[in-house]
Amino acid sequence: MSIVGSCFQKIDGWLGSFSIEVFADILKREWIDEALTQTGRQSQRERKLPAAFTVWLLIAMSVFRRLSIRNVLHRLGNVLGAGSLWPEGEDPASSSSVEARDRVGAAPLRWLARRLSEWILATHGEAMKWKGLLLLALDGTTLKVPDSDENRDRIGLPGSSRGRAAFPQMRALFLVSTQLHFILQAAFAPYGWGEMALAMHLLPAIPAGTLLLLDRGFISWKFLLRLRDGQSHFLIRVRRGMKAKRLQRWGPGDHLVKVRIPRQLRQQRPELSRDVLVREIVVRIHGTWFRFFTSLLDASAYPAVELVQRYRDRWEEELMLDEIKTHQCGAATVNRPVIFRCQTPNRVLQEAHGLVIAYNLVRAVMAKAAGRRHVPPLRLSFTDSLERIRDAALLMAAAPTRDLPRIYDDLLDAIARCVLPERRERRLPREVCIKMSKFPLKHKPAA
Fold this sequence. Notes:
By secondary structure, this protein is of the alpha+beta class. Helices cover about 40% and strands about 15% of the residues. The relative contact order is 0.13.
């Protein structure tokens, strides 16, 4: 917010060029203008909350996640000792922010998330590669949304053994760099959508030259063959009972196999042959057998041991989800289960794309700080870095323009010092210990 720091009292005209200065070097103002223009959402007249400012508000809502929307708006527009964006320091009413967000909609945020992803690939693409291939993971999760009639109707409730579920849940699928934790693509849908349907929707956006790490839920030849046709590769865990005919042995537990393509898929795509050749890797880890299929058939260039080690990197996507849910959003399962604030599906979707943009911006600042100190970006604490970025955003809002580079340099140095200890090896069973509530179940009216 350099313009705020240098000329806070000049109200007319410059609200539309507002920016959060800590991210302004990464998220260009012209990107926001282009996003609004491309989606037809640019402001048509002077308003208290112009479209460009509203986009920054949606991003700030995901950075200052513990605050209500009104308090986020107040924090952006009022800096102690500097002044207010609005005459007499009067914040816009809550209804004004709702109307402003409805005018902007979700499309500009979706466009902006894609543009930021392109910048990430251009800037950090080499750091996300393994042997010339982008090492990415694809996996899904669910995100709890506020319990309103409209959210229940359009987003949907999951099943529950205790009756009606407490909150609607939105299905989400993320394409994530396992090396740097950037979210390169995201798809959101009602709970009734399956992860495979979302994966097919995201498939055209997966960059060529990718090695995609997948769990057993994505074992669909319709998806995997289309991925391979797009000049990418897969490494997927499969069930031991899945049939495959071994043709050639390349090493211990490493074989070229032939797998029969389902008849239904061959009817849909007559050009497909009856069988597909893949590489099967079978390995025993801590007493448990694991079985993988991969389209990387060159055993000398891609040894089985290295592929198994790379598959372990798929867990980095789970850590990314933990950073968003637990640390960025502060959503504990019991105390604060809901990720979003909004009561309508369109605003929930808008907030979801803002969450992805904000997370990538934080990760981009962390990557820049790690490069200064030559520290691996994943060794930096996300929680500590986010707190320092929150503090710097407020400080830079009130600082004169001449002081902004110094404050930003200090921020990068502070983040670079947030080094975590080496991650220890550990294995945890899939168990939970959640105390069931003693209170009676609240019966809600049907949606």
